[in-house]
Design goal:
elongated; 4-stranded antiparallel β-sheet; 4 strands; Outer membrane efflux proteins (OEP); alpha+beta
Length: about 425
């Protein structure tokens, strides 16, 4: 308890004296990976080889080609050749031909809008790649923590197995001495079987957690590490919210889609003025006695179709704008939820840990008291169950506090942040 008071006092002093400086430097760079998680190098290697990340990286490459195509434009040079045979009423005939080269030209700001649309597609694809990496980092942290947590749970049940075996042996000795009944021995044996069952379940859960981790991230070598002790968050909710919203990939994707929708609306508006097709042509007529060289120009007549498409694009842009706000609110709610879970988990872990050592000491003393004939079996089993429940509650609180703290660090790009391609 004194330790927590000291930490709290120290934090309050630092907050009063260095708060302005902390606000400017808290997000200066990525944090060192916690001791119970893989290193940043190993984590990034695993994340970059995740199938979803590979898929997003290839989509980014495709978007680059799409952007180049938009800058070049969809209009290509068109050649037109024709030949004819002319017959005269007075007799005779003439072999004639003509050739033309034509191309539609983007007028106004259409070429610039198309180039900006390509850049917008690139930005969206980059954000999607970063989001795939981010989701893979989340999955890696969760699966790794699950493996460590199930390993710890198996250790707890292994300790209980030792206690249960000791209890059964003590009952057997007291029964032989005439100080315990056969019923007590049956109860102790049933307790031992139940502990063995729970240990088997915990072992299976650990194996499943490790298997899930290795299947999702096969290049990552798992190693059992002790879970770290949860620590207090070094910033308040407003600072976490500001940082995470600034780094939010889903929000960047929504904003990119809004920009693209606005560009699409601008393009539809520009398309109300049709693009002309210009060309040059040459022809040979009258038995090659006439040579023709000329220019051609064709312009489509704009109708209601182009106007309706523009109205559709404008409505879609407004819908995209609403989605940005929806995404912002959803992201904000996620930050608040993660922050509350991290702080609440820390408090629950502190409370669960306070009486843990006392509870285990009571169980140890009760085990000895029963062996000496100073306590009954039911009291021993109850004390042991209380110690197990207290330990399980403390471990669960520790795991959840760490899980949400690491989630905040990943969301804020302070842990395993994606590197620039």
């Amino acid at each position: 308890m004194m330790r927590w008071k000291t930490i709290a006092t120290g934090m309050s002093v630092v907050g009063l004296v260095l708060c302005p400086l902390a606000m400017r430097t808290a997000w200066a760079g990525e944090r060192a990976a916690p001791t119970d998680l893989p290193s940043a190098e190993l984590a990034r290697q695993s994340i970059d080889q995740d199938p979803a990340v590979i898929d997003a990286r290839r989509a980014l490459s495709a978007a680059g080609h799409g952007a180049a195509a938009l800058r070049a434009g969809p209009n290509e040079w068109t050649t037109r050749l024709s030949a004819q045979r002319r017959r005269y009423d007075q007799g005779g005939h003439s072999s004639e031909w003509n050739a033309a080269l034509e191309r539609t030209i983007r007028i106004g700001d259409k070429a610039a809008i198309d180039a900006q649309t390509g850049d917008s597609d690139l930005a969206i694809s980059q954000a999607q790649l970063d989001d795939a990496r981010h989701e893979a980092a989340r999955a890696l942290a969760d699966l790794w923590i699950d493996a460590l947590a199930t390993s710890r749970q198996r250790v707890l049940w292994a300790e209980q197995l030792s206690f249960a075996q000791t209890s059964e042996q003590a009952v057997e000795k007291r029964r032989k001495a005439g100080d315990a009944s056969s019923l007590d021995l049956n109860v102790a044996h049933a307790d031992l079987i139940e502990v063995q069952r729970q240990l088997s379940a915990a072992t299976t859960a650990e194996a499943k957690a490790k298997a899930k981790l290795s299947v999702r991230f096969p290049v990552l070598k798992y190693e059992t590490k002790p879970l770290a002790e949860p620590t207090a968050l070094d910033m308040g909710l407003p600072q976490w919210r500001e940082r995470i919203l600034a780094e939010s990939h889903p929000l960047k994707i929504a904003e990119g889609l809004l920009k693209k929708a606005e560009l699409t609306a601008s393009r539809a508006k520009a398309d109300r003025v049709p693009d002309p097709t210009v060309g040059v042509y040459t022809a040979s007529e009258a038995s090659r006695t006439e040579r023709i060289i000329g220019l051609s120009l064709s312009i489509p007549l704009s109708g209601s179709y182009r106007s309706e498409r523009m109205q559709q694009a404008l409505a879609e842009a407004e819908a995209a704008r609403a989605k940005v706000e929806t995404q912002r609110r959803e992201q904000d709610a996620e930050v608040v939820d993660a922050y509350m879970e991290a702080t609440g988990g820390l408090e629950r872990w502190r409370l669960a840990s306070q009486g843990l050592s006392t509870t285990f000491e009571s169980a140890r003393l009760m085990q000895r008291a029963y062996a000496l004939g100073e306590a009954d079996l039911q009291t021993l089993l109850l004390t042991r169950r209380q110690a197990l429940d207290a330990s399980t509650a403390a471990e669960q609180s520790r795991v959840e506090a760490l899980r949400w703290h690491y989630r905040l660090l990943i969301d804020a790009h302070l842990l395993w942040a994606p590197q620039e391609d």
